[in-house]
């Protein structure tokens, strides 16, 4: 069995935990994220999604699970920030995640580069890497499959201007992707409860990602506080 086949087999049917904290968040620390990942592994996670070379390297010291690597970076004139250019892909390759996720929406990219040109270049440069397309719509996912992505995620549904009114988790979108595509569909976005996770898996997705509901205590606390706040 090839390495990529082993990675896919390890995450199939399981829960991937996203361990991320940006610079303006209280838990921003590669050390803390590595311990988050370790706790997730002990809890039964089948994989980790992580942001930045530093975090991925630290996490690899703590866990032996497949890692979906991303590199968030903002560019003027573009809303695309999840592994937006070849520079971020090159940086991620230095820490060797098992999968690299890339924004595959139809939004304008940095330097007005087309997704097709950018992705075909990195696919040629790194032919053995598994690439995941972070999508917002079914159309995004279909296009990602056409240009050679290995898997797609519902990651950005509800977070783009075109999909801002979507209710997440978007079960209908997940079912549409599963029924339309030949490549694995990873459910991500808005999963807060075990019941929602079960419903997501019942849509036929390959695996699911949960981040905020597990690894962002500020947001979790805010959710509880809002339930008892005076109107």
How would you characterize the overall build of this protein?
With 231 residues, the chain is of the alpha/beta class. The chain has a single domain, classed as Aldolase class I (TIM Barrel, Alpha-Beta Barrel), CATH 3.20.20. 41% of the residues lie in helices and 15% in strands. The protein contains 10 helices and 8 strands. It has helices at 3-11, 30-42, 53-62, 86-93, 115-125, 138-147, 171-180, 194-201, 212-215, 217-228, and strands at 15-19, 47-51, 67-70, 99-103, 130-134, 151-153, 185-188, 207-210. An 8-stranded parallel beta barrel has the order 1-2-3-4-5-6-7-8, surrounded by 7 helices. The longest helix is centred in the first third of the chain and has 13 residues, at 30-42. The chain starts with a helix and ends with a helix.
Offer a concise description of the structure.
By secondary structure, this protein is α/β, with parallel strands linked by helices. Helix content is 41%, strand content 15%.
Blueprint (SSEs and pairs):
Elements: H1 3-11, E1 15-19, H2 30-42, E2 47-51, H3 53-62, E3 67-70, H4 86-93, E4 99-103, H5 115-125, E5 130-134, H6 138-147, E6 151-153, H7 171-180, E7 185-188, H8 194-201, E8 207-210, H9 212-215, H10 217-228
Parallel strand pairs: 1-2, 1-8, 2-3, 3-4, 4-5, 5-6, 6-7, 7-8
Helix pairs in contact: 2-3
């Amino acid at each position: 069995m090839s390495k990529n086949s082993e990675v896919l087999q390890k995450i199939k049917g399981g829960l991937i935990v996203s361990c991320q904290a940006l610079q303006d968040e209280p838990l921003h620390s590669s050390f803390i994220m590595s311990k988050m990942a370790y706790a997730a592994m002990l809890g039964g996670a089948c994989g980790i999604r992580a942001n930045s070379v530093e975090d991925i390297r630290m996490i690899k010291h703590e866990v032996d699970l497949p890692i979906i690597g991303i590199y968030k970076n903002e560019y003027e004139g573009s809303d695309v920030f999840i592994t937006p250019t070849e520079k971020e892909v090159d940086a991620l390759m230095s820490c060797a995640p098992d999968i690299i996720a890339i924004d595959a929406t139809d939004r304008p990219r940095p330097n007005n580069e087309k997704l097709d040109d950018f992705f075909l270049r990195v696919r040629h440069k790194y032919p053995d890497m598994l690439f995941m397309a972070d999508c917002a719509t079914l159309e995004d996912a279909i296009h990602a499959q056409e240009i050679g992505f290995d898997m797609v995620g519902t990651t950005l549904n509800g977070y783009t201007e075109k999909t801002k009114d979507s209710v997440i988790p978007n079960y209908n979108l997940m079912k549409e992707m599963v029924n339309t595509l030949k490549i694995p569909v990873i459910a991500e976005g808005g999963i807060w409860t075990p019941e929602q996770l079960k419903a997501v898996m019942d849509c036929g997705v390959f695996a699911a990602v949960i981040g905020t509901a597990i690894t962002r205590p500020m947001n979790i606390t805010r959710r509880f506080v809002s339930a008892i706040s005076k109107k």
